[in-house]
Amino acid sequence: MRITIEFSPQSEKLTLPIHYNSLIQGLIYNNLDGLVSDRLHNEGLAFGKRQFRFFTFSRLYGRYLIGRETIEFTGPLKVHVSSIHEDILESFVKHLLIKGKIQLGSQECELVRIDVEERPNFTRPIKVKTLSPITVYSTLTTGSGRKKTYYYSPAERDWEIQIFANLWRKSQALGLGPNDPAYLAGSRIRPIKVGKQDLRIMKYRDTVIKGWTGIYELDLPEEFFYLAYDAGLGAKNSQGFGMIKVTNSQ
């Protein structure tokens, strides 16, 4: 399930830090019923050592100017939020409608409307565009014993391998699909319009994260496409990474 939220600054502009993902995430957690929020934040669904929260969100869309450390929006803005769990979005929408406002940090915006997005038709393969960067990584140990995070790029074969391994783990945490990862052996994600300009280096609180935007072709089973559509591709989805939409762009 996916929703689009439209809102407008109460003053002439909305000024946010350039790296605002944690503010959007906080907006979601702070507008859920207490039990839903606690379960989502503290538990999620586990598979092995990993925990998945099965929601994601887009970048903010609207008119903006970028300064050295801030981004300034004027006029209406939109953000897309999706989740495998409808009760999360229903709770979120209920709280926003009751309040009639959007609080981002110390700034308030007026809620304009909330739309439930129509589920896209599936074809195989299917072309998608990122609404927030896709990030995949491995944690490596150096010769000195230090931990190092290595972020993959779409030019690397392991980028695709990591994306589908992550997607399979999500399915297992949900109890969906075959329990053999070989089921996804024939799946592909192919960059169609992705260049150096699509590398995004972002910060989530104090963590630097590298991700990639652009247009890709996905070839995977239908149930796994909708899992990726609702929960996000790659890692760190609940921090605002990996949201995609179907596109006809070349």
**Overall pLDDT confidence:** 92
Distance between the termini: 26 Å
Tell me what portion of residues adopts beta-strand conformation: 35-45%
* Share in helix: 10-25%
Number of helices: 5
In the CATH scheme, what's the topology name of the largest domain? Alpha-Beta Plaits
The total strand number stands at 17
- Shape verdict: globular
Q: How many domains?
A: 2
Architecture per CATH nomenclature, i.e. the level-2 architecture of the largest domain: 2-Layer Sandwich
Unreliable stretches covering 5 or more consecutive residues: none
* Run of helices and strands: EEHHEEEEEHEEEEEHEEEEHE
Radius of gyration computed on alpha carbons = 18 Å
| CATH class group of the largest domain | Alpha Beta
Biggest sheet statistics: 7 strands, antiparallel
Structural class, by secondary structure, is alpha+beta
Explain this structure.
The chain is of the alpha+beta class and 250 residues long. Helices cover 24% and strands 39% of the residues. The radius of gyration is 18 Å and the shape is globular. The mean pLDDT is 92.
